[in-house]
Amino acid sequence: METTLTQKLNIQYPIIQAPMAGGPTIPELIAAVSNAGGLGSLGAGYLTPEQIRDTIREIRKRTDRPFGVNLFVPEQTEVSEDIIEKMNNYLNETRTELGISLNSSTSELKETFNEQVQVLLEENVPVFSFTFGIPSQNIIEEMKQCGIVVIGTATTVEEGIQLEAAGVDAIVAQGSEAGGHRGTFVGEARDALIGTMALLPQLVDHVAVPVIAAGGIMDGRGLVASLALGASAVQMGTAFLVSLESGAHAAYKEKILTSNEDSTVVTYAYSGKAARGIRNDFINKMRLYSGTIPAYPIQNTLTRDIRQAAAKANNPEYMSLWTGQGVRLAKELTASDIVKQTMEQAAALIERLNKNKDN
Ligand SMILES: Cc1cc2nc3c(=O)[nH]c(=O)nc-3n(C[C@H](O)[C@H](O)[C@H](O)COP(=O)(O)O)c2cc1C
């Protein structure tokens, strides 16, 4: 199952462990996937430049194989004080319930994307991936000059075409089944909910660079299907979220392991940006809110204290439980077993399909 992309990334198997910002992608998980022949990736979007540098060094202590680091491309957001105040007042009801202090502040919102990029260059990471937009031409060129493989995220064919024109080496086709934030940067995320099976072949037909399938891929069947649709690799998030090495909160893992294919929804409630997660009390409560949800990253900052307090109290009803629609297929295994079983199942499936052809 060697592809042009596995060669370019210098990995054995076409399996990328999705970067997952917010805690799951700790060095132990990333290194385990890379050591098993896939590509481990750090979701570094919420980390400070220094935290990113330290984490990269921790990964390198555990593996000498390639790995990726993923960042969020910043976007301009203008939100009126009135909208923020109304939301803060609404969130205060939940804060009171959780017994935490009222009124979160957005004043600590500081953009550090350029400094984060600088750390990736200085540490010469093997792979740089990004979502929510396209970094400047300078950044993409500098990365490539340093020999760093650059991967962007698209949720539509148009976004893929723009990423290719910007010079990326490969594109993640993020289908609507995918857990976590939508990478949409052209138009509205609610209009760009294209399933992986429909998005992938259309994107493959319109770009020359390798395409990576993401969204709902949980095992060897998803891998073979993705390769058949023209993908050069798969990016799996939810499957690795419940792995033994994942840094996800125990209550979050438990929720995933007891959820069904219809347990997730796309919501703006936690961050102001569309994201797929397991529906819980907080999402239900925000559905009753009649005002405007402040855009990302403001809402994300406003709800941080609530998410942190819920995590501390082991209360999944107020934690963001980002998960994809393949959730019922999630198994609590080691990361290397997930890679191994996915490859074995894919190989057996290909053999079976070949036999059927002969009959
Ligand atoms: C908990 C979680 C966090 C995520 N964080 C990121 C991120 O930081 N950067 C990114 O590009 N994608 C992120 N994603 C999206 C994944 O890259 C990928 O598109 C998705 O996991 C694929 O769908 P699946 O979960 O069904 O495998 C995240 C997904 C999850 C589940």
How does this structure look, described?
- By secondary structure, this protein is an alpha/beta fold.
- It is built from 15 helices and 11 strands.
- The chain has a domain at 4-74 and 111-248 and 330-358: Aldolase class I (TIM Barrel).
- The chain has helices at residues 4-9, 27-35, 49-62, 81-98, 113-122, 137-145, 157-166, 196-206, 220-228, 238-241, 250-257, 281-287, 298-302, 304-312, 335-358; strands at 15-17, 40-43, 67-72, 127-131, 149-154, 170-174, 180-181, 211-214, 233-236, 264-267, 275-278.
- The chain has an 8-stranded parallel beta sheet with strand order 1-9-8-6-5-4-3-2. Strands 7-11-10 form a 3-stranded antiparallel beta sheet, with no helix packed on it.
- The structure holds flavin mononucleotide.
- Flavin mononucleotide is lined by residues 18-21, 24, 43, 45, 70, 131, 153, 174, 177-180, 214-217, 235-239, 241, 322-324, 326.
Give the tags.
single chain; 359 residues; alpha/beta; TIM Barrel; eight-stranded parallel β-sheet; three-stranded antiparallel β-sheet; 11 strands; binds flavin mononucleotide
